[in-house]
Specification:
The protein has an 8-stranded mixed beta sheet, with helices on both faces. Strands 2-3 form a two-stranded antiparallel ribbon. β2 and β3 form a beta hairpin. Helices cover about 30% and strands about 25% of the residues. The radius of gyration is 19 Å and the shape is globular. It has a single domain, classed as CoaB-like (Rossmann fold), CATH 3.40.50. The protein has about 230 residues and is an alpha/beta fold. It starts with a helix and ends with a helix. The chain binds cytidine-5'-monophosphate. The site of cytidine-5'-monophosphate (C5P) has 14 residues, from α4 and β9.
């Protein structure tokens, strides 16, 4: 039997997809750690990989909460968007929103350290060296993985040296279900570019996803994740 175009569109709208009914929290972007009112420590992450995951999760029917730091990409208005620039603010925002989540995707490039004190006024130039004392930030992903009611967790690892080995260690130490390894030793893919090449890594599964657009990488990551975990 042939169905008309109108009926096909209606059918598509009622089609339940793989992530329908799932709540997914995604962090993305580069954290910003203030030094004084005008200066900060940050990194080259654009938030594009995380936003591609937001978009694809929404397409698959999920309810998405997007907690974002500094990004160079458009927000998806169909997500619930919360800005949290520093690691500490992001930690607070994640913990306040994690209870109802089925899946946590930790895509943000979070600074491991932040200045112990933020100068109230702009730091003046003088003849002496300027010494900044940096203190460790909370590890958001690790803390989520320690929760008694832990959601399924996907972390990211941007590595420049011994990528596979380091990603395996990260999978174990953070206690997450999946690590997406991003080899950023080359300049062509990884941070602040539109294409990427990653490896999906879980305790007993490994799959390389060849170089392609971040939208397609996100689609593939979710495809593997759904097949293996849901
Ligand atoms: O330890 P590393 O920073 O390489 O780990 C990267 C992973 O951990 C990413 O998924 C990142 O979002 C997450 N992370 C975090 N909180 C931090 C540092 C990293 O959630 N303070």
């Amino acid at each position: 039997m042939k169905i008309g175009r109108g009926a096909a569109i209606v059918a598509q709208q009622f089609h339940t997809t793989e992530l329908t009914g799932k709540n997914i929290l995604i962090t993305l972007g580069a954290s910003v750690e203030a030094i004084d009112p005008v200066r900060y420590i940050s990194n080259h992450s654009s938030g594009k990989m995380g936003m591609a995951l937001v978009n694809n999760c929404i397409e698959l029917g999920a309810q998405v909460t997007c907690i974002y730091a500094k990004i160079q990409t458009e927000l998806n208005q169909r997500a619930s968007n919360i800005q949290a620039l520093s690691a500490k603010k992001m930690h607070k925002a994640v913990m306040e929103n994690i209870a109802e989540q089925d899946i946590f995707i930790s895509c943000a490039a979070v600074a491991d350290f932040s200045p112990e004190n933020i100068a109230k006024d702009k730091i003046k130039k003088n003849a002496d060296d300027l010494k900044l004392i940096l203190k460790p930030n909370p590890d958001i992903l690790q803390d989520v993985c320690k929760l008694t009611k832990k959601p399924l967790t996907i972390g990211f690892a941007a590595e420049t040296k011994n990528p596979l080995e380091n990603a395996q260690i990260k999978l174990k130490n953070k206690g997450c279900d999946v690590i997406i390894l991003n080899d950023v030793s080359g300049a062509d893919f990884g941070l602040n570019v539109d294409e990427n090449e990653v490896t999906f890594l879980s305790q007993n599964y490994q799959q390389k996803i060849a170089k392609t657009s971040k939208q397609k990488i996100a689609k593939k990551i979710l495809e593997i994740f759904i097949r293996k975990f849901l």
